[in-house]
Design goal:
The complex is a heterodimer of chains A (283) and B (192). Chain A is an alpha+beta fold. Chain A contains 10 helices and 8 strands. In chain A, helix 2 packs across helix 3 and helix 2 packs antiparallel against helix 4. By secondary structure, chain B is mostly helical. Classes of the chains: A alpha+beta (283), B mainly alpha (192).
Amino acid sequence: MIIQSAALMGILGLLFAILLGFAKRRFYVEVNPRIGKVEEVLPGVNCGGCGYPSCAAYAEAVAENGESVDLCVVGGSETTQAVAHAMGVEIAAEDKQRQIAVVFCQGTSEAAAFPGEYRGIPDCAIAISSQDVAKRCKYGCVGLGSCVRACPFDAIHISESGIPYVDAEKCTACGKCVEACPRDLIELHPVDHDSFVYCKSQDPAAVARKVCKKACIGCTLCVKAAAADDNEGAVRMDRNLAVVNTEKYTAKAEYGKKCPTNAYTTRANVVNVPPASSEVPVR
Amino acid sequence: MEYIAILIVTVLVNNFVLYYFLGICPLIGVSKKLDAALSMGIAVTFVMTLTAAATWLIHRLVLEPFGLPFLEYVSYILVIASLVQLLEMFIKKAIPTLYKTLGIFLPLITTNCAILFVALFQAMRDYGFLEAVLFGFGSGVGFTLVIVLMAGIREQLELSDIPKPFRGAPVTLVVAGILALAFMGFTGLASA
């Protein structure tokens, strides 16, 4: 009995092994070995920051279609070098400025006016579509954490004051939260640039003041301060809002000295209270 | 008529997931999105049908004549594992896009208990060849039906305010229970 069963299983196993062996040869698919090499050096978090749905898809695009090797924002220049090496090309070590996400709203539970408590579905876009149940300010953060849920790196959280707090250490500037924010309050900026007008309100001064203590009222004092510092263009007016331009200029913190609402300030002064827990708030 | 009865019984009355509570792992793991759930269901259906056919042959032509029915489990697992491997190679060659959609779910079917159950059950019930194949196919269709229903419900659940301890797998199990209650309504439609 023992011999019989052992022989039977042995024969069965052998048969399947032969079958699979033949199938392996018959159905062999040639894969570009570079795809695997490139994929190996990518971070493997599938954040989509490069524009491809996964690291594997980006690796394939690089190896097969000659996609640019420097699209991985998460890995930075190190990964770019590694990918270039895997592809057999050498590129000059160019120091790309590391970026992080910046949230342009200071409408904390203290500063902003709330018409009432929102008790609907905890999603920013849905809250906004349900008219004025969220925050009085039509441009401000609703604080329901759509960006928090979008973040693949656990780098953005709703602070106790009700608006998002970006962990500069963890943020990789993948841009998921930028897409997730229905009010376009999040932008990517160089990490060492921390003076901004932390507001996106286009409301005229009278309205802006009423709905939020920290709103930009378009007084142009920071624009003038920048101009006086021979730095014209570092802060510009966009209708009723002053906007800091980080592309060519470096705005200094002192341009905001005269800001009547403290909308122009530095990162450290915005939300310096990290959330107590890393839980996604329910509402 | 008998064949239709087998189909109705396996798909609706004795549904693998909701009656026997088999294959719960993929039901919870792969039911977050509708299209992924559908692909998983189709892959499982395919493997179940093939498994039923292959194990019927092994049961009738090898195990019974040699008087070795106790080798059922071992040999069936061997058959299932090899079949899934073969299927994976074939799909990779023939339909690369489907291969990408199924991804890791395809090799994971090997360890799906519902598949082993199909193999064991058709032997237990002494089905004929066509009956066994239909049984495998019907089981797969039943699995697909439930996992797709589940995915549809879960896509809605994402937006609802579920108490914290229930989020994720727990509420999915509760939903599965309620679905099972609903499927009890099919009892008496036909019997195996």
